[in-house]
Specification:
With about 230 residues, this protein is α/β, with parallel strands linked by helices. Helix content is about 40%, strand content about 15%. The chain contains 9 helices and 8 strands. Strands 2-4-5-6-7-8 form a 6-stranded parallel beta sheet. α8 packs across α9. The two termini are about 20 Å apart.
Length: about 230
């Protein structure tokens, strides 16, 4: 989960920033990323076709520059009333464009009723991954809604920077509450640039491993993300 594709959203603004982010990712120990530009009402031009094309072009440029980073297509999908219809019409990208997992983004201060959405996506063979629940102002105060979502089959993805305090004390506290409750399935970068929103995965890994052990850290940083990238359960 990163915003490395240039000129599509609030992530990399140009090819220079994309290349800088790619160098930083490799230095951080990352070998494969899923590019997830926003697909939302704020970025209506981000069609599936446009994201797929930009992903291919980015991969070509990284290979020409000799940067050993593999980029897969995806999207950071803002939840709306039309999400199911748009998935059915293949307008919204799943992770890796494999039709198995979709990254869903809640507004920061709202919790939609997700039960029906997750159920209908499951009927389509698509499993939901909820991005950065620790940064949602409603979920920060109450774990019960996310526990119910997990029981329904939804996966939770926490941002690496949240464990480092990047998004403030409350988000950090919420991230650790989710972690210690066994509710963090994936830790992802949500990198937007090479400055104040970098990958920071190596630093976050050390913090998480210190809290819950290297075995669980490996699951959330390496094993489960790899399964998602391969379209496996």
């Amino acid at each position: 989960h990163c915003h490395i594709l240039p000129g599509l959203d609030d992530g990399a603004r140009n090819w220079e920033e994309t290349i800088a982010m790619a160098h930083r990712a490799v230095a951080d120990g990352i070998r494969r990323v899923i590019a997830t530009p926003h697909q939302s009402e704020q970025y209506p031009a981000n069609t599936a076709a446009r994201i797929l094309s930009r992903t291919s072009e980015t991969q070509e440029r990284l290979e020409q520059a000799g940067i050993p980073l593999s980029i897969l297509p995806g999207a950071d999908v803002r939840i709306t009333d039309s999400t199911i219809a748009r998935v059915t019409r293949s307008e919204l990208l799943t992770l890796g464009n494999l039709g198995k997992h979709i990254l869903l983004e809640l507004p920061s201060d709202v919790v939609h009723s997700l039960d029906r959405l997750i159920y209908e996506l499951e009927l389509l063979g698509v499993r939901s991954i909820l991005s950065h629940p620790e940064r949602n102002l409603v979920l920060q105060d109450d774990l019960r809604p996310v526990e119910q979502l997990v029981n329904q089959g939804c996966l939770l993805q926490v941002t690496a920077g949240s464990f480092l305090g990047t998004f403030g004390r409350t988000a950090r506290k919420s991230a650790f509450r989710l972690l210690r409750a066994g509710l963090v399935h994936i830790v992802a970068s949500d990198a937007h640039n090479d400055g104040d929103r970098p990958f920071a995965m190596a630093a976050a890994y050390q913090v998480v491993a210190a809290a819950v052990g290297h075995e669980e850290a490996d699951r959330s940083f390496r094993e489960r993300p790899a399964l998602v990238a391969q379209g496996e359960q």
